[in-house]
Amino acid sequence: MNDIERLVDELKRLNAAYRNGEPLVSDAEYDEKVEALRAMNPAHPYLGAVEPETFNGKGKVRHPVPMLSTEKAYKIEDLERFVNRVDKAALEIGLSSVNYQVMAKLDGLAGRDDGTEFATRGNGFEGYEISSALAKGVIPVGGRGKGLGEIVMSLSYFEENLKDHFEHPRNMVVGIITSDVLNEHAQKALEDKAVRFVPYSELNKWTGSGPEMIASMDAIREEVLGGIDYPVDGLVAEVTDEALRTHMGATSHHHRWQIAIKTRGESAVTTVESVTWQVGRTGKVTPVMEVSPVKVSGATIRRVTAHNLERLRSESVGPGAEIEIIRSGEVIPKLEKVLTPSEEVSIPETCPVCDAPLEEDDKFLLCVNPMCSAKAEQRIVHWFKTLGSADWFGKKTVQKLVEKGYDTLEKIYKLKAVEFQALGFGPVQSENLYNALGISRTEPVEDWRFLAAFGVRSLGKSEARNLLSVFPLTELIEKTGDEILAADIRGFKGAKCENIGTGLAVVRETIRHMLDLGFQLEVTPLASEVAESASDSPLSGKGVVFTGKMVRGSREEMQEMARKLGAVVQSSVSGKTDFLVCGANVGAKKVEKAREKGVEVIDEDRFYELVS
Ligand SMILES: NC(=O)c1ccc[n+]([C@@H]2O[C@H](COP(=O)([O-])OP(=O)(O)OC[C@H]3O[C@@H](n4cnc5c(N)ncnc54)[C@H](O)[C@@H]3O)[C@@H](O)[C@H]2O)c1
Ligand SMILES: [Zn+2]
User: Fold this and answer.
1) What reaction(s) does this enzyme catalyze (predicted)?
2) Which ligand lies nearest the alpha carbon of 233?
3) Pick from 324, 348, 365: which residue ends a domain?
4) Does residue 166 line the site of ligand 1, with CB under 6 A?
């Protein structure tokens, strides 16, 4: 692959992520790469088409007129060249003076509303039908049928309610439009009428000549962006004369009579007042600088995220440091430069959420405590991995669920196949996910594995096993660290008991909830009961599997009996199985397989004989 192909590949990947509301890089970074491609090959087809969006599970509609992208001016010279081109075209049709209008370039999801059809841009020619968005509560500003516009979220609403949960309102808007199941934040934003379709025709506009526009760009910016409460990534300037528009026409990428005016972002100098630390869903602990309030492109900035720990340390960013911040279309401003370093830089040693000791990756601080409430994702992955259902609920899947607000087992276990589909999973995968949840509940599972799956610190599989041979599960989860310590169990000392006690308290309700869902638990026999009766039983220390429909009593009762006699009740036949107890309707194949492994196959009657 050559450099150009590699770059285009990367752009395609970044674009797909961005269109799905999950950008991997900042817009400025993406734009830089686009300009790099333009420098290498200005005629590259990637630059000549609208960057496409792909939304699964939505109907497609053809646009009567293609919905295009915009040409971009980064410098005033780019704008001057545009005005010159327009002037030339005007002369060709005998127009002596050209009038322009300038308005905000809204940073949301482009849409077209003709009064009946409501559609996204899609690939420019064909978009996705999203009338469902209006039913969900997206407000059409100025009413229906106003043509092209942008679906956006109120910026003040976002900053007040959502800034700590989501990186950019645009990502939330995409999520709201594309998924049928909404997380609580999205639901609330819709109820609060914060998500709106703003037709471009409704925007506040400056009008004037080309030279005026060039001469007073700053004042124009103030005028049209001043009162706006939506995320903006520049301005749009366009010719107003219909005849000139028609004469100039369009490329496959943009209208020749329209241009976006982008700025590298406004910067400001401020002072760091304090540094606070936030824990992300993967346990990454990032510093947030609380700064003296400062106005940057119309917004008052009070907090700046510093993503890199090393930078904080090497450039000494702490209270008192003077820094330059930049805000380029992004809602959340970035640290650009350290002008005066701080005297004191303190890096925390324990997690600000759970207080566990932090570890340091090469660039980041990490909370590795799986119980840390900030780490829903890791906890859910651990659950499915420990239960053995990780084939379905792998990292990617869980990440997607958590991002859409399904961040607890309680919420995930409620999902039906259609709901998985609405979250963006394919129909087959959705069916599989739903079935996998069912299987995890109905397949027998050892209680110690079930307990270990909650990921309580210091409570792995072997600890769970040991503890459950002393306390039954329902009793154990009520215990404090001190009570566990007091039971004087070998290997359970101070810190371990404390971790287990605190951890259990955190997940107690979740454990109860999962128990209520009816998991098929194979109960670990209590050491006391085993000791009493097991020594001379024929089942003592033997591996026993029950299969088929039991006629004389319930399977659970039989398992309980076997355990009391010292048997190890297993869920399936393995090399360690001694007896396979068959109820009704057991396939000949299963029996044959067990026999091949040297397992003694017995029926219910024989089982009762053995235990009597
Ligand atoms: N961060 C990333 O990874 C990433 C990836 C891809 C694209 N992007 C960003 O997306 C943008 C390019 O994509 P694009 O082609 O969708 O947008 P564009 O910047 O080329 O502009 C065209 C779009 O502007 C919108 N618009 C907003 N206000 C408007 C107004 N008043 N009048 C007319 N149009 C208006 C319309 O949706 C139109 O489709 C760039 O800003 C780029 O940084 C970012
Ligand atoms: Zn933590």
Assistant:
1) NAD(+) + (deoxyribonucleotide)n-3'-hydroxyl + 5'-phospho-(deoxyribonucleotide)m = (deoxyribonucleotide)n+m + AMP + beta-nicotinamide D-nucleotide
2) 1
3) 365
4) no
Look-up of token digits 């899947």 = 397
Q: Whose CA is nearest to atom 28 of ligand 1?
A: 105
Residues 384, 169: Cα–Cα separation, whole Å: 32
Ligand closest in space to the Cα of 225: 1
Atom of ligand 1 nearest to the CA of 23: 3
- Write the residue with the smallest CA distance to atom 23 of ligand 1: 69
Using CA atoms of 427, 51, 127, 147 in order, give the dihedral in degrees to the nearest 10.
Answer: 150
Distance CA 65, CA 148 (A): 11
ipTM of the complex: 0.95
Which residues, including other chains, have CB under 8 Å from residue 10's CB and lie 6 or more apart? 33
Question: Looking at the structure, do residues 437 and 558 belong to the same domain, yes or no?
Answer: no
pLDDT interval class at 314 (50, 70, 90): confident
pLDDT in tens, 147-193: 999 999 998 888 777 876 677 899 899 999 998 778 878 888 998 89
Give yes or no for residue 203 CB within 6 A of ligand 1. yes
Q: Answer yes or no: is the C-beta of 238 below 6 A from any ligand 1 atom.
A: no
Q: Based on the domain organization, do 118 and 250 belong to the same domain?
A: yes
- For residue 494 the two structure tokens come to 């101070």
d(CA 192, CA 139): 10
Question: Do residue 491 and residue 579 come from a single domain?
Answer: no
pLDDT grade for 332, boundaries at 50, 70 and 90: low
pLDDT tens per residue, range 52-71: 999 988 899 999 999 999 99
Whether 168 is in the pocket of ligand 1, judged by its Cβ within 6 Å, is no
Task: Output DSSP code: residue 454.
Answer: T
Which carries the bigger pLDDT value, residue 336 or residue 275? Answer: 275
- The 3-class secondary structure across 582-601, one letter per residue, is ECECCCHHHHHHHHHCCCEE
Q: What is the mean pLDDT of residues 419-431?
A: 94
Residues that constitute the known binding site for Zn(2+): 351, 354, 367, 372
Q: Residue 17 CA: which ligand 1 atom is closest?
A: 3
| Rounded distance from Cα 371 to ligand 2 centre (Å) | 7
| CATH code (residue 352) | 2.40.50.140
Domain count, the chain: 6
Residues spanned by the domain of 582: 533-611
Atom of ligand 1 nearest to the CA of 105: 28
Mutating to test ligand 1, I would choose from 26, 70, 263, 330 the residue with most ligand atoms within 8 A of its C-beta, which is 70
User: Is residue 496 packed enough to be buried (19+ CB in 10 Å), middle (13-18) or exposed (0-12)?
Assistant: middle
Tell me which of 105, 284, 375, 564 is the catalytic residue. 105
Are 512 and 555 contained in the same domain? no
Choose the final residue of a domain: 261, 277, 293: 261
Residue 105 is among the residues annotated as catalytic for this protein: yes
Instruction: Average the pLDDT over 77-95 and give the result.
Output: 96
Max mean pLDDT range (258-272, 407-421, 461-475): 407-421
* Bridge partners of residue 269, in order along the sequence: 324
